[in-house]
Amino acid sequence: MRTVIGRFSPQVFAIMRFVVGLLFACHGSQKLLNWPPGKMHPPIASLFGLAGIIELVCGILIAVGFLTGIAAFIASGEMAVAYFMQHFPHGPIPLLNQGELAVVYCFLFLFIAAHGAGVWSIDDAMMRKR
After folding, report:
1. Residue 36, domain extent
2. Total domain count for the chain?
C-alpha cells in the first residue's frame, strides 16, 4: 500500500493543507462576515473577534501556502487556547466536552508548522526562485 500512496505524499499533503486551511478560514468568515450564516457574529474588538481574525487570515495563508509555518503555529496556539478556555472547563476528555475539533486542528496545524508548506504553495515557489 505504501508504494501506491507513498509516492503521492507531497501532493496529498498539499491537498490536505489546502482543505484544512479553507475549512479553518470558514470558521473565521462565519465569525467576522456571518458567512456562512451562523449563530455567532461577535464584535471584532472581543476575544471571539480576535479568534475570527486569526482563523480567517491564518486559514487563507495556510491554504495558499504563504508564511505557512508562522500561520500554522499561530493557528495551533489559538486552537490550544480555545480548547482550554471553552472545552476543558467541561471536563478533560475531548469526546465528552465537544473539544475534538479544537484538538485535531491544534495538532494538524502544529504538524504543518513543523513540516512546512510543501509542494503547490507560494512558500515553495519562492524558495525555488532563489
Report:
1. 2-129
2. 1
